[in-house]
Amino acid sequence: MPNAILDPTGGASAVAVPFALAQRKPDLAGARVGLLENTKQNAALFLEQVGALLVGEHGAAAVTLMRTKKAFALPASDELVAEYARACDVVVTGVGDCGSCSAAAAADGVAFERAGLPTAVICSDAFVATADAMAALRGAPGYRYLTTPHPVAILTPDQVRERAAQLAGAVAELLTA
């Protein structure tokens, strides 16, 4: 009997369901923000800072949910996506600072968008190819996400806060119409 070939992307073929971004509002006024971090060094601080800036400078009501993924290289479970859909109006996820976590972050973004949640995915710029490949595999070729210079893991807390401040406006734009 021949050996089975495993698909490392988590699926046998590309998703056939047409992809469309979740409907966006003109601004973040009153929006409940969800943050999903992937356990990578500095990801939690980065997302916490972005969340605080979305509330303090872009009109979001509050960060209502922040979870840490159990495994950075695996896409969010259906249950986790459903929890965010109940508790949040928009989601920010990442920080993809390696190939597998960037791919998983892109998969998460597509899943949240399919669930009706405008999502901003953040990856470090060294892993655009893996994020793009996963988005295409999930039926969302050309899926737009944000990048920050690689690496994020070695930054000091002050440098992380500075990066978050530099990206918060782009995150707000990506989450709105």
Provide an overview of this structure:
The chain has 177 residues and is α/β, with parallel strands linked by helices. It has a single domain, classed as Glycerate kinase, domain 1 (Rossmann fold, 3-Layer(aba) Sandwich). Helices cover 40% and strands 16% of the residues. The chain is built from five helices and five strands; from the N terminus they run βαβαβαβαβα. It has helices at residues 43-58, 78-87, 99-114, 128-137, 157-175, and strands spanning 32-37, 62-68, 90-96, 119-124, 146-148. Strands 2-1-3-4-5 form a five-stranded parallel β-sheet, sandwiched between helices. α3 (99-114) links the parallel β3 and β4 (119-124). The chain starts with 31 loop residues before the first strand and ends with a helix.
Give a brief rundown of this model.
This protein has helices at residues 43-58, 78-87, 99-114, 128-137, 157-175, and strands at residues 32-37, 62-68, 90-96, 119-124, 146-148. It has 177 residues and is an alpha/beta fold.
